[in-house]
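Page 37, continued from 36.
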């Protein structure tokens, strides 16, 4: 199948988003297979039928990977098909989980896919949401670094300037608070998971810095 992600990144995104923020391109595998699986997910879970997988972002969802290293996280997101150890969500779709950005422990920011493409990273809200994954949070620990906090602030500030439609910044653990909002699209009443990432302390500090 024809790969097209590299051209999209070269044509669409700058390596330097704003002063102090360096976005490194590290695209995950994105063939027509991943596109087809995403379109299928949209139709099955959201009742949306369209020709492409583009979204108009209204929300940023902050995550923690629960992996030890950047490469561990990337290797989980890179395949187009869901990994065999994700039996908890396998019945919902064969589409692999992913995110738009991945923030390393040292604060380096990597872009995995175009931010206006739909990624599978949060139940019910993918169609509106940009996902930021932070390396860490194994066993539910709140161990994300100050470098990651600073990087998240810069990245979110950049994205909010680029997309005036963005109105919400939430932690993954907060996603179910939106079930009764117009943003919630999930059609399967039994498709829910329990989340604690990226941690309440991290989100409190992130919101304080964004406010300031």
């Amino acid at each position: 199948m024809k790969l097209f992600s590299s051209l999209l990144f070269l044509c669409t995104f700058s390596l330097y988003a704003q002063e102090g923020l360096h976005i490194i391109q590290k695209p995950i595998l994105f063939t027509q297979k991943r596109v087809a699986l995403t379109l299928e997910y949209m139709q099955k879970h959201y009742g949306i039928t369209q020709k492409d997988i583009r979204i108009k972002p209204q929300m940023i969802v902050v995550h923690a990977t629960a992996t030890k290293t950047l490469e561990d996280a990337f290797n989980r997101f890179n395949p187009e098909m869901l990994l065999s150890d994700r039996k908890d969500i396998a019945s919902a779709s064969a589409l692999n989980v992913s995110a738009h950005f991945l923030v390393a422990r040292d604060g380096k920011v990597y872009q995995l896919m175009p931010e206006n493409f739909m990624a599978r990273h949060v139940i019910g809200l993918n169609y509106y949401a940009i996902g930021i994954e932070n390396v860490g949070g194994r066993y539910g620990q709140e161990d994300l670094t100050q470098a990651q906090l600073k990087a998240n602030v810069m990245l979110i500030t950049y994205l909010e300037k680029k997309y005036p439609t963005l109105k919400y910044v939430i932690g993954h653990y907060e996603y179910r608070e939106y079930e009764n909002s117009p943003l919630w699209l999930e059609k399967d009443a039994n498709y829910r998971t329990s989340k604690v990432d990226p941690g309440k302390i991290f989100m409190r500090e992130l919101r304080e810095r964004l406010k300031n």
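The mean pLDDT is 93. Flag for discussion at group meeting. The first helix runs from residue 5 to 12.
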